[in-house]
Amino acid sequence: MALYSEKVMDHFLHPRNVGVIEDANAVGEVGNAKCGDIMKMYLKIEDDIIQDVKFETFGCGSAIASSSMATEMIKGKPLSEAMQLTNQAVTEALDGLPAHKLHCSVLAEEAIQSALEDYRKRQEKEVAE
Ligand code: FES
């Protein structure tokens, strides 16, 4: 059996939603201390819906494939759904990752959570001002 599924290879070679959203209203950045890989997630949220999402990943192929799949899974979805996204769901959607690469999908979950947390903080600030 091949080490990586066809879906992983497809998302690694043709990642969806790569780039920056200049007017993003939520940005999250996380890193993995062990491998040094970094993932940045940009969200454009309107009316509690993720209208747009883009990412930049400086990391391994599994991290790129995971971020690409994760962005597809939350695009157009309500915040409540995006909050529930787990790395297991991302891994399943990719038809699996090798065990020693599972932490790469955790980075995608954490990057989205970090961006959602950023959004929450910005909302609080707006209310306070
Ligand atoms: Fe670092 Fe995959 S090896 S995220």
Describe this structure in words.
With 129 residues, the chain is of the alpha+beta class. It has one domain: Sufe protein. Chain: A (Alpha-Beta Complex), CATH 3.90.1010.10. The protein is 47% helix and 19% strand. The chain contains five helices and three strands. It has helices at residues 6-13, 61-74, 79-83, 87-93, 102-128, and strands at 26-31, 38-46, 49-58. It has a three-stranded antiparallel β-sheet with strand order 1-2-3. It is elongated, with a radius of gyration of 14 Å. The relative contact order is 0.21. The model has no long low-confidence stretch (mean pLDDT 96). FE2/S2 (inorganic) cluster is lined by residues 32, 35, 37, 59-60, 62-63, 101, 104, 107.
N- and C-termini, Cα separation = 57 Å
Q: Kindly state the mean pLDDT as a whole number?
A: 96
Total DSSP E strands: 3
Order of helices and strands: HEEEHHHH
CATH fold-level topology? Sufe protein. Chain: A
Describe the sheet with the most strands. 3 strands, antiparallel
Structural class category: alpha+beta
Q: How many domain units?
A: 1
How many helices in DSSP terms?
5
Low-confidence stretches: none
Bound molecules: FE2/S2 (inorganic) cluster
Enumerate the strands of the largest sheet in spatial order, edge to edge or round the barrel: 1-2-3
Text of the CATH class: Alpha Beta
Q: Percent helix among the residues?
A: 40-55%
> What is the radius of gyration computed over CA atoms, rounded to a whole number of angstroms?
14 Å
Shape: elongated
**Proper CATH architecture:** Alpha-Beta Complex
